[in-house]
Amino acid sequence: MTFNQFDIHSHIYFKDYDSDREQEIQKMKDANIGTISVGVDFETSKVCVDLAEKHSNLFACIGQHPGDLTQDSVFDSRLEELGNYPKVVAIGETGLDYFRMDPSDTALKSIQKTIFEYHIDLALSLDKPLMLHIRSSKGTMDAYLDALEILEHHSKTSGGKLKGNAHFFAGDTGILNRFLDIGFTVSFTGVITFTHDYDEFIANTPIDMIMVETDSPFLAPHPYRGQRNSPYYIDKVVERISEIKQLSLEETKKALLGNVFRVFGI
User: Fold this and answer.
1) How does strand 58-62 pair with strand 88-97?
2) What is the Cα–Cα distance from 119 to 225, expressed in whole angstroms?
3) pLDDT of 72
4) d(CA 120, CA 104)
5) pTM of the model
């Protein structure tokens, strides 16, 4: 189908949509809005694939969220087999999440790094981009710094073949530039419609390196703040990007869609 706008990160399979999921997807379809439904573990990744197979405006991202690891998390051929489905366009969300950890828990950090590298190897073997989830300890950039050290190494050893997007970017200027230097895009959510905290990052990032997302059902943009979010509201994020970049809305839409097609092969 032809897309007018695209939300690169949502969780349309969450229970928040159990009462009206099909209606919500149809509403998006009628508006030519697409989304990547992002798994947080093997089971939800399978659900994302199933939904994507059913709907022309849905695509899937499969992987294990670093903050949701359990002894039952899957890291074997089953995940690779799932990644071979044509509508799987990314691997993740994966990365490092130190936010709720004891900063001195080096063992858990080591486990997260090992699993992150597994996802990187999977992404390279399938020639698909990463969908990064990186959240640092409060008041620090520790997870970003550790993740970038790993990503920069793999970018170099892969001959620059590694690609991906830093979901819900919340780093600093130095972190931003390091992502851009390895060819990774950064994405922004509806939060930018009610705070100016991200304006500088958006203004200083080339439009061809920006993605937009809702992270639905979380973080609904103004004027829907406090309500359940939806990929249908992605237009509010696009409008704010347009304002900050001082570009026309049509020019902004065209550029953002081009980024999706380029990075995710949609």
Assistant:
1) parallel
2) 33
3) 82
4) 25
5) 0.97
